[in-house]
Amino acid sequence: MRGPGMTRILLAGGICAVLTAGVAVAETAQEKRTKTMKALGGHMGAIAKVAKGEAGYSPAIVDHAKGIETISHAMIGLFPAGSADAKSRSKPEIWSDWTGFEKAANDFKAAAPALVTAAMSGDRGQIGAALGAVGKTCGGCHKPFRKPKE
């Protein structure tokens, strides 16, 4: 049943939906990189606690490893041309040595599946070794392509 009250409610809801859609702001490449890198650090940290024996193994470690693998596939796309930002720790060398950057990102992508496999094993030694290999690829990108913290 539609009466005058229902019509007003529907109209108000429609106006709110239009206004809300107009307020949405696109995420910048830098914001997306920052959010993704923080997520990557969270995944790495959770797995590191298990590898070091600071936390017990749980199936959630597999989810963290899969999260790292997913991020590894997205890494190159997080750095589109022209997305340098003064607030960023990204060095201009990312774009001036794109081939080197792409290799470093692909090394990360190549190492990630072994971490998923190790996480699925539940073996702390395997997890630690695979995490170390992934961490090495992170350093292979950070050293040449990331500015130090100020």
Could you give the topology of this structure?
Layout lengths: L3 H20 L5 H23 L8 H15 L18 H4 L1 H24 L2 H22 L5
Helix pairs in contact: 2-3, 2-6, 3-5, 5-6
Your description of this structure?
The chain has 150 residues and is mostly helical. The chain is 72% helix and 0% strand. It has 6 helices and no strands. The chain has helices spanning 4-23, 29-51, 60-74, 93-96, 98-121, 124-145. The protein starts with a helix and ends in a 5-residue tail after the last helix.
**Are there runs of 5+ residues with pLDDT below 50, and where?**
6-12, 14-23
Give the amount of beta strand, in percent. under 5%
- The succession of helices and strands, N to C, reads HHHHHH
Strands, total number: 0
Pick out its properties:
single chain, 150 residues, mainly alpha, Four Helix Bundle (Hemerythrin (Met), subunit A), 6 helices
